[in-house]
Fold these 2 entries.
Entry 1:
Amino acid sequence: MRFVTVVVLTLSVTGAAAAQTLACDPVLTKRVWAKCSACHTVEKDKHKTVGPSLHGLFTRKAGRAKGYVFSRSFQQADFAWTDVTFDAFIASPQKTVPGTKMAFAGLRNPEERAALACYIRQPSP
Ligand code: HEC
C-alpha cells in the first residue's frame, strides 16, 4: 500500500514538471533567449566560441559542462543548478559567481529569468 502511494506521488510530481514545460511562453522565451544565444546553445555538447552549451543544465553542477574550459571561479564553484541558483546567477552573474568570465550584466525582470529556466528545460537535441 505504501509503495502505491509513492508511485502515485512520483507520477504527480512528473506531471507537474511537464505542465510547467508546456507553460513556457513562446514569444517571451524567444525574445529573452536572444540575449543569451550569441554565446550559448541548448544543444548537447555544442559549445559556442564564447560560452558553454546549456543542454541538461538543471541536471548538473555549475562549471561542469564537458569539453568547455571554465574560469577558475566556475571550476571552483560548488553548487548544483536549480531554479533558485539559476535565478540568482542570471539576476547578477558577477555577484553570484565573482570573477566569472560571463560578460553579462544580469536580467532584472524575474519573469524573463523564469522564461529562460523554462526554455533551457525544454527537451532539445
Ligand atoms: C557575452 C557572452 C555571454 C552571454 C551574452 C551570456 N553568457 Fe552565459 N556564459 C558565458 C561564459 C563565457 C560562461 C562561462 C563562465 C565562466 O567560466 O566563468 C557562461 C556561463 C553560463 C552558465 C553556467 C553554465 C554551467 O554549465 O555551469 C549559465 C547557466 C549561463 N551562462 C547562462 C546564460 C544565460 C541564461 C544567458 C542569457 C541571459 C547568458 N548566459 C548570456 C557567456 C555569456
Entry 2:
Amino acid sequence: MKLKLVSAAIALALGVGISGMALSQEKPESLVKQRQAKMTLQWKYLKPLYLMSRDRMPYDAKTVAQNVSYLAVLDEMAWDGFDPSTKDLKTHALPAIWSEPAKFKAAQEHLEKAVAQLVKVSKGGNEAAVKSAIGDVNDACNACHKDFREKE
Ligand code: HEC
C-alpha cells in the first residue's frame, strides 16, 4: 500500500515535470506556426468587419459583436510566439522585432488600444462610429506590418 502511494507520487512528480518542461521548451518552429495561425485568425475575424466598414458587405451588428469579442481575445494571445528562440528561423518577421523591441511593443499596444476602443464603441450601436473604429484597428495591423513584417 505504502509502496503504491510512493510510486504514484513519483509518477505524479514525473508527469508534472514533463508537462512543465514541454511548456518552457516549446519548439521555435511550433511557436512560429502558432503565431502565424493567430495572425491568420485575426484577419479571418477582422476581414468581414473591414468589408462592412468600406460598405463592401452589408452591415450586420450581430457579426460585429461576435467578431469583436474574438478579436479582443486573439490580440491578447498574438505576441507570445515572438520569442527570441525563433530569431534565426526563416519567417516573414523582420529583424527589427529583435533590434527595436520597444517599438515592436508599442505597435502591439497600438493594436490593443484600437481593439479596446472598437469593443467599447460596438456596444454603443452607432454604426458610423463602429465603422470608423474598425478602420482604426485595420490601420494598427498595417502599421506594424509596415515596420516589422517582410513584404510578400
Ligand atoms: C505588433 C506587430 C503586428 C500587429 C499589430 C499585427 N501583426 Fe500581423 N504579423 C506581424 C508579423 C511580424 C508577421 C509575420 C510573422 C511570421 O512570419 O512569423 C505577421 C503576419 C500576419 C499574417 C500572415 C500570417 C502567416 O500565415 O504567415 C496575417 C494574415 C496577419 N499578420 C494579420 C494581422 C491582422 C489582421 C492584424 C490586426 C488585427 C495584425 N496582423 C496585427 C506583426 C503584427
